[in-house]
Automatic annotation (TrEMBL):
Annotated ranges, domain Exocyst complex subunit EXOC6/Sec15 C-terminal: 424-774
Name the UniProt record assigns to this protein: Exocyst complex component
Broad class of the protein's primary localization: cytoplasm
UniProt KW Transport keyword: yes
InterPro entries per UniProt: EXOC6/Sec15, EXOC6/Sec15_C, EXOC6/Sec15_C_dom1, EXOC6_Sec15_N, EXOC6PINT-1/Sec15/Tip20_C_dom2
This protein's GO CC annotations: cytosol; exocyst; membrane
Species annotation: Phoenix dactylifera (Date palm)
Taxonomic classification: Eukaryota, Viridiplantae, Streptophyta, Embryophyta, Tracheophyta
Length: 811
């Protein structure tokens, strides 16, 4: 077939653009590409005819190529057709053979196919049954876990219930065999957890209420144990001091064993002791129930449940906030109840709170941290300091302040054992030390005044031995270790044991306040306040009593007799303070001072002496009967001297039963000095214009009576009789030297310094000159009775004139 040639009109009408489109279309067809873009473009441009014309033109151009191919392969086509014809015959024969084989196979395989269908059906049933059994077993396990969870919930075992629910959620929720079961699990699992959370929250709330009551009683028990331990320590220190003073090895060994026993007792736990005491029936019903009900299991259970729920951090915060609120409520001090009545409950509640927190910190598994406990303690101690400052500032009774101080110090000892810092509390106690002692001194001042006002200042009568032990031995004011016979009349009045009891109570209260306050060596402080008590209060009260002027001779004598006893008592006071302060007696004795009641002692003796001098003045009125120009000397002395001697003997017989020997000695010396002064005063008196030798002889007789009295009293003193007599005669020395001078044959020797120092050292120049001027006879001449009336001058008169002249020159 001849190849067709495209008409010339196509190339002329298409132009370049059509040729380009035709080329692109040909390329797309040759490459087997999609012709959709060309079709859309043709219709979009509104020229689909051109596309069709291009396609036709392309088809015509390929027809010529086909013809050429056919011409080139014509023989091959003929052979292929022949092969196909021969193949068709073979296919027909094969088809008949296959048909026969199929018929034979169908006849043979029919029964087998029926068996195969039955097998497949049975296999499907078996598979379904296996799936059903697996689902049933899964449901059984789920139901078993759910039933177990119900049992745990019914028995209030929330942890195991939650574990069961967690197992269901972990192992069976995603593998639930049926959507209904899955929906049920999705609804029940949160419900169980919510129930457990509510249940444990209620238990925790109940525990918070119970632990508050239990904490108060636990704090009381812990502080009580601290008080008992303190008492044992004080007893131990007493035994140790006794052992130290006695230096006996056996006592030291006994004390050492006591130390070990105390340490063993102190190792026991406060909670254990509280429970033991409650079970032993040592407390009230409420206290026993509270202590026996003390159990941290509900708290730990709540914490464990919240850990299981994954809410442990939230529970920690919830616990801390609730305990903080509870502690804040414990800080409330009722204004309706005096703090003195409520302070033990207040501090015991706080002590129990922090004992519980310490236990939870050590055994709670991280429920509360050390920083949280420290924060609570800082809040608590700041509040306690504030409360103490406020309450101490209001108190005006020393005993109230001491009671609270003791309990606070026991609180400090108790909580220090658990590692809490209590220094701020001790600082508050130390800050109010001066106020306490001022109040204590004020109380003692009132008690001393009442004791002095109630005393009649008579010797104290003790009928029984226990009275002697209570009023004498307990203050170590006895003068002998021998127990006297009863009834016993003491040399002191009831004021002495009363004052001793007041001072001893002051010492014990002072030591009680100072001890257990963080300061070890507090004896100097106790001694300082004891000096103030004795020097300001006791000495001042006795001094005011003496200076008031309402005491008689017997009362003044009793006051003076009380002072030496008080001096012995003061030694006991300082020893007692040293012993209670825990220092050896030898150290305390090194710092001993003079008698603190020295002013009142001197004032009492001065008052007694003034009263006796006043009494002597009454007797000295009898000197008006003395004849200064008598013709003969009185045979037995003057009347006033006899009366004074009688009075002095009566005074001594009474005073020696009351006054100690040193005091009696000083009183007698004072009285005799007054007698000597009165005798010298008689010669100097303006009423005595002149006197003669007979009058001097009478005064000499009087002095001899007084000196004889002094000799008779020398046996009362512990020294030798000669020394005692000389001591009592010393107050009479001025009068004796004056009388000796007037009776001397050589009175001019007074001007000799050696003789004057030896024999007339007590005489005054002016007094001697004045008295010598009065020494005349009845004719107004000096020493007229010693000489004759002749012209020859008496040597004694001449010596006296020379003395008078020389004394005038000296004047």
């Amino acid at each position: 077939m001849p190849r067709r040639v495209a008409p010339d009109s196509y190339s002329a009408a298409g132009g370049d653009a059509e040729r380009q489109d035709l080329h692109q279309l040909s390329s797309a067809i040759c490459n087997g590409e999609d012709l959709g873009p060309f079709v859309r473009k043709a219709f979009a441009s509104g020229r689909p005819e051109s596309l069709l014309q291009s396609l036709r033109h392309y088809a015509r151009s390929k027809e010529s190529e086909i013809e050429e191919v056919c011409k080139a392969h014509y023989q091959d086509f003929i052979r292929a057709v022949d092969d196909l014809r021969s193949l068709l015959s073979d296919v027909d024969s094969l088809k008949s053979a296959l048909s026969d084989s199929n018929t034979a196979l169908q006849s043979a395989a029919g029964p087998l196919l029926s068996f195969l269908d039955a097998y497949l059906e049975a296999r499907a049933v078996a598979r379904n049954l296996s799936a059903a059994l697996a689902a049933a077993r899964l449901c059984v396990r789920v139901l078993e876990l759910l039933a177990r969870a119900n049992d745990h919930l019914a028995s209030d075992d929330l942890y195991l219930a939650l574990r069961s629910v967690d197992a269901v959620e972990r192992d069976f929720l995603d593998a639930a065999p049926h959507p209904t079961l899955r929906r049920m699990l999705l609804r029940l699992i949160p419900a169980v957890r919510s129930h457990a959370e509510r249940k444990i929250a209620k238990e925790f709330s109940d525990w918070m209420v119970q632990i508050r009551v239990a904490s108060r009683h636990l704090g009381q028990v812990a502080i009580g144990r601290a008080s008992a331990a303190r008492q044992r320590e004080e007893e131990l220190r007493i035994r140790q001091r006794q052992a130290e003073e006695q230096s006996r090895l056996s006592l030291r060994d006994a004390n050492s064993s006591s130390i070990y026993s105390l340490e063993e007792d102190d190792d026991s736990d406060d909670l254990t002791a509280a429970i033991a005491a409650a079970r032993g029936g040592g407390g009230s019903g409420a206290a026993v129930d509270a202590i026996l009900g003390f159990d941290l299991t509900p708290l730990y259970r709540a914490y464990h449940i919240h850990q299981t729920l994954g809410l442990q951090d939230r529970f920690k915060q919830y616990y801390f906030e609730n305990r903080k609120l509870q502690l804040t409520s414990d800080f409330q001090v009722s204004s309706m109840t005096p703090f003195l009545e409520s302070h033990q409950t207040f501090f015991a509640q706080i002590a129990g709170f922090f004992i519980v927190e310490d236990r939870i910190l050590r055994t709670g598994g991280g429920l509360i941290s050390r920083s949280d406990v420290d924060a609570l303690w800082e809040t608590a101690i700041a509040k306690m300091v504030s409360v103490l400052e406020d309450q101490f500032s209001r108190m005006q009774t020393a005993n109230h302040l001491l009671l609270i101080k003791d309990y606070v110090s026991l609180l400090g000892v108790t909580l220090r054992r658990y590692g809490y810092t209590v220094d701020p509390l001790l600082d508050v106690l130390a800050k109010h030390r001066d106020k306490y002692h001022d109040l204590l001194l004020s109380d003692c001042r009132r008690q001393v005044s009442e004791a002095l006002a109630a005393d009649k200042f008579e010797q104290m009568l003790m009928k029984k031995e226990y009275e002697y032990s209570m009023n004498v031995l307990s203050f170590q004011i006895q003068t002998s270790d021998i127990t006297p016979a009863f009834p016993y009349v003491a040399p002191f009045s009831s004021t002495v044991p009363d004052l001793c009891r007041i001072v001893r109570s002051f010492i014990e209260d002072s030591v009680s306040f100072m001890s257990h306050g963080g300061q070890l060596d507090f004896y100097p402080i106790v001694k300082k306040y004891l000096d103030r008590l004795l020097g300001e209060v006791v000495d001042g009260a006795i001094l005011r009593l003496v200076e008031a002027g309402g005491l008689g001779v017997s009362q003044a004598m009793q006051v003076a007799a009380n002072m030496p006893v008080m001096e012995r008592a003061c030694d006991f006071f300082f020893r007692h303070a040293a012993q209670l302060s825990g220092i050896p007696l030898r150290i305390a004795e090194r710092g001993r001072r003079e008698f603190p009641l020295k002013k009142s002692r001197d004032a009492a003796e001065e008052l007694l002496l003034r009263l006796l001098e006043a009494k002597l003045d009454d007797f000295m009125i009898l000197t008006d009967t003395v004849s200064w120009m008598a013709d003969d000397p009185p045979p037995n002395g003057n009347e006033y001297a006899n009366e004074v001697i009688i009075y002095l003997e009566t005074l001594v017989s009474t005073a020696q039963q009351i006054l100690p020997i040193p005091v009696l000695r000083r009183v007698l010396c004072g009285v005799l000095a007054q007698v000597s002064e009165k005798i010298v005063g008689l010669f100097l008196s303006d009423s005595v214009k002149r006197f003669n030798a007979n009058a001097v002889t009478g005064i000499d007789a009087d002095l001899r009576l007084f000196e004889s009295f002094a000799d008779n009293q020398s046996h009362l003193f512990g020294d030798t009789e000669d020394l005692g007599a000389n001591e009592l005669k010393m107050p009479l020395l001025e009068a004796r030297q004056l009388v000796n001078l007037l009776m001397s044959n050589h009175p001019e020797n007074f001007l000799n310094p050696v003789i004057r120092e030896k024999s007339y050292n007590k005489l005054d120049y002016k007094k001697v000159a004045t008295i010598s001027e009065k020494f005349r006879d009845s004719s107004d001449r000096l020493f007229s009775t010693f000489g004759t009336r002749g012209s020859k001058q008496n040597p004694k008169k001449k010596s006296l004139d020379a003395l008078i002249k020389r004394l005038k020159d000296v004047s």
